[in-house]
Amino acid sequence: MTTNSPAVARRVAEACRARGVDMLDAPVSGRPPTMTVMVGGDEAVFARYRPLLAAMAGNIFYVGGAGAGCTAKLVTQYLGYTNFIAALEGMLIGAKAGIDLGVLAQIVPLSAGASRTFDNIPRSVLPGSFTAGGTLDIVAKDLDLACGLAREVGAPAHLGLLAHDVLHRAQAQGWGEEGFPVAARILEAMAGAELRAPVADVAGYQAEDPRRGRT
After folding, report:
1. Cα distance between residue 150 and residue 105, in whole Å
2. Which residues of the chain are in CATH 1.10.1040.10 domains?
3. Which of 16, 24, 153, 200 has the most CB atoms around it within 10 Å of its CB?
4. So what's the pLDDT on residue 203?
């Protein structure tokens, strides 16, 4: 259920088959009991073990042969975290232009800029907590794997490489164990501006308390 390279998943599946062991690669997005599972492997094995997955997840997708689950997960990670970096840049344009970030953060979810990853900005970046989601190290690992997959299949990954550069710079600052939104500090330094606004001004969001996790 880890997020890994599809090539690694295929090698593990082959080693398992040689020993008479069934193997599914089934990385996840979200948390139980509503999380999404993306499954690769033999379809008959998937059908047999689907009830086990259903005990953990609300959305279960069979994607294809060995490694296909990892491929699907890396695509979703690529989409999410390149989007997050783009969203930070957009907000910094607004900050440098002098508009109210609290108002802008209410506009974006109702516009073409809406996305689940954008929601980490009012939830975690504007209050300066940087605690939402997985750690910077995990997100950087996943994005690196996604860019590697793009090279393997001959697909463009220009945005991913730029986003990974930002994440790598944040890792070089020693922030790897912090929440991935801390990467905002790299772009803030480049822009010479901070993305801060009173969270009370952003409808529908509350600041995260690092002592209690999500609120």
Report:
1. 32
2. 72-201
3. 24
4. 55
Which of the four CATH numbers 1.10.246.90, 3.40.50.720, 1.10.238.10, 3.40.50.620 does domain 6-66 have?
A: 3.40.50.720
Q: Which two tokens stand for residue 93?
A: 């344009």
Specify the pTM.
0.91
Catalytic residues: 73
Contact assessment for residue 70 and residue 27, using Cβ atoms and an 8 Å cutoff: yes
pLDDT (tens digit, 9 = 90+) per residue, 150-173? 999 999 999 999 999 999 999 999
Contact 20, 26 (CB under 8 A): no
- Cα separation of 86 and 163, whole Å? 8
- Tell me the two tokens of residue 211: 């002592």
Tell me which fold the domain 72-201 belongs to.
Answer: N-(1-d-carboxylethyl)-l-norvaline Dehydrogenase; domain 2 (1.10.1040)
The count of residues in the chain is 215
- Residue 64, exposed/middle/buried by CB under 10 A (0-12, 13-18, 19+)? middle
Q: Within 13 Å, how many C-alpha atoms sit on residue 185's CB side?
A: 21
Burial class (CB in 10 A: 0-12, 13-18, 19+), 156: exposed
